[in-house]
Amino acid sequence: MAIVCLFAPIPAYAQEQSIVTNVLTGVAIDGYDPVSYFTGPEPRRGSPQYVHEWAGIPWYFASAANRDVFARAPEIYAPLFGGHGAMAMSRGYLSDGNPQIYRIVGDRLLLFFSVGNREAFDLAGPAALAQALDNWERLPPARGAAPFVPPAGAADAMAE
To answer: Residues with Cβ < 8 Å from 36, sequence gap 6 or more?
Structure first.
């Protein structure tokens, strides 16, 4: 029984709002350029040549232009839930999102742990996003960080 508990997922309420980073480099969303999700057909990997620190974490970009756009409005381009999986968050758990498995919903970037999680999120509709936003808001901000304020109407955007 104790072994099972060691490997059980940790409920989101026992965690804090945080940004998913690469465990070896400390770079947000595994070095992918968050602006590139909105400007091209596929997300692009960023480069240490174009780095911007936001929320105490380095973010890489594919170009100086993308870095500068992000620096002006990071809350628009950074993934919701800090890059944690949107479906897991709607279920009340934190799991790292995969930057290659994503969806743009209501002009916001959502990452998912797996293709199956993304499909479940799509099937659940706006209720999944509303629940994820509610669960995220209940988390305390990461130490030293400002609390997350979701964009107005974020849950409604999925219904469009």
So the answer is: 42, 43, 44, 46, 61, 62, 66
Domain encompassing residue 105: 79-140
Q: Are residues 108 and 124 in the same domain?
A: yes
Better pLDDT: 39 or 20 = 39
Q: What is the pTM of this model?
A: 0.80
What's the pLDDT score for residue 119?
96
User: Could you give the CA distance from residue 113 to residue 87 in angstroms, rounded to a whole number?
Assistant: 8
Asked whether the CA dihedral 100, 92, 126, 69 is positive or negative, the reply is negative
Q: What is the pLDDT of residues 124-147, one digit of tens each?
A: 989 999 999 988 888 777 654 444
In the chain the beta strands, taken as DSSP E runs, fall at 47-54, 57-61, 98-105, 108-112
The residue among 62, 78, 94 that closes a domain is 78
Predicted confidence at residue 137, as pLDDT, reads: 85
3-state secondary structure of 23: coil
Are 31 and 73 in the same domain?
yes
